Amino acid sequence: MTSAPAFDQHIPETAARTVEFISLSHLNPSTELNPIPTRGIDPAYFTTYVRALEDGGYDYTLLPYGSGTADSFVTAAAVGQLTERIKPIVALRPNTTLPQVAAQKLATLDQLTEGRAVVHLISGGSDAEQARHGDYLPKERRYARTSEYIDLLRRSWTEPAPFSHDGEFYKFDGFGPGFAPYDTPIPISIGGQSDEAFQVGGEKADVFSFWGEPLDDLRAEIERVHAIARGAGRTTLPRIWVTFRPIIAETDELAWRKAHAYVDKIAATFAKSGFGKQIFQQGSPQNVGSQRALSFADRADLYDRALWTRTAAVTNAAGASTALVGSPETVAAAILDYVDRGADLVSIRGYDTLNDAVDYGKYVLPLVRQEIAHREATGRRGTLQAEHLGNYTEDYRRYATAGQA
Which of 92, 123, 334, 354 is the most exposed, having the fewest neighbouring CB atoms within 10 Å of its CB? Predict the structure, then answer.
């Protein structure tokens, strides 16, 4: 049983004061619910998708990267030209692009989009995936490379004269001055759950990203990364990015009917390695984030107000896969629970990708923003979290377990 937390209108000290929303951009209509064999880009679909994000009020979109995917720099540039406000986040692996070259490419994107570029550095959680691009650096050293990479990105953007570098992973002579960003330095995000990830992220990242976890566990991880930041003498702490896969419908009961139908389809797709890079993600995952997600799924299906782990269990936690299930009000209240724990960048992307992105923009984002505006105006929490209790009620738990053995 999950007991409802005591609620009052006091804003927790840990709460983020602002919230921005992220989605992942999809290049074609293939989904985990309905996989379509393709490795290509459907330009019409991609255009429709990113413009739906702009119309829906999202702030950022992540352009993913893998050894068999489209190039994230090129797709980010396309997002920049197809939208006026969305900030494209380039997913970048340090082994694929020299840091001074990446600095030029990112600054070019930033100038073309008038200051909207963001970069998310992926150190690499799988030896096999890294090897596909010829990277054989041991996992425990990849974050050390990322640390050196961050320093060189920032120096390339700001150094007023040519400079040389002779480090553990990179060496060059007389580079620069590099091509500058539009205005301010480009935000750098990293993620990961290993000790090395926390150390580099706490010391150097502008943003640290997590997958959706139970509230208390995530808060402990936020405190950990912020403690490292303070220990490094930072006065500006990393922003916190958390990712969910919401499943919504008009009521909690209808959302659970959808969720049970979805998980069966997702499990079948994964069993056939029928979507994206799932063919590479069988067996025990090497990255700590997936290991944690599976451990939560082993312990329980449901956590807190609306966090569901079954979707992680049936996909072997292949990427961000934990869901929030319920009506738009229940899911918005659950997002606010995470905001209260310190998350100020919330990534929500669905399993029915385009339709979900549109629905979140219509029905979820406005509720969260209304609550944040209420807090700013009054200094107190509104009543959404008190009125839509989700898993803290018997009815919700009954819907969640309906039809299960």
Answer: 354
